[in-house]
Amino acid sequence: MFFSLRQGNFAEFFAAFFIGAAVYPVIELMWRGYTHLSMVLLGGICMLSLHFINMSFEDCNIFLKAGLGALMITAWELLFGAVLNLALGLDVWDYSSHKFNLFGQICAPYTFLWFLLCFPAYFVSGYMHLLLERLKKKCIK
Predict the structure, then answer these.
(1) Mean of the pLDDT values across residues 93-120?
(2) CA 78 to CA 30: how far, in whole Å?
(3) What does pLDDT average to over the chain?
(4) What 8-state DSSP symbol labels residue 8?
(5) Which of 20, 26, 71 has its CA nearest to residue 43?
(6) Secondary structure of 48-111 in HEC code, one letter for each residue
(7) CB–CB of 112/70 below 8 Å?
(8) Helices 62-81, 108-140: crossing angle, 10 deg rounding
(9) Cα–Cα distances in Å, from 70 out to 57, 133, 139?
(10) In whole angstroms, what is the distance from residue 97 CA to residue 77 CA?
């Protein structure tokens, strides 16, 4: 069964979004030395998507979930890149010098990095889920 808001998981969705919104720009600052405000939104959406995958496919192999997560992040990156870079001309990033790129917005090497980042992200997602479930049980008593 898919993880959804109907199951009363709004706090988890909010927490996942907030964690991604806070952590992704920091990772980008450490990696590139700069970031863009739009990466707060992208980071939040990506972590929210990863949390959804992690909770919806709990029994799935972690490598398959990481592959799905990497593809999901790459899809979001393509969408944001098409809007921010191609349509609005903000030049937030440009992968055109990387091998196997598509319109300079996504590339295979970064998809592999997203794959690797999915492992700690899923750990955080699972731990956050457990903490919020414990908190929920304590509040109900």
Answers:
(1) 97
(2) 22
(3) 93
(4) T
(5) 20
(6) HHHHHHHHHCCCCCHHHHHHHHHHHHHHHHHHHHHHHHHHCCCCCCCCCCCCCEECCCEEHHHH
(7) yes
(8) 110
(9) 15, 27, 36
(10) 17
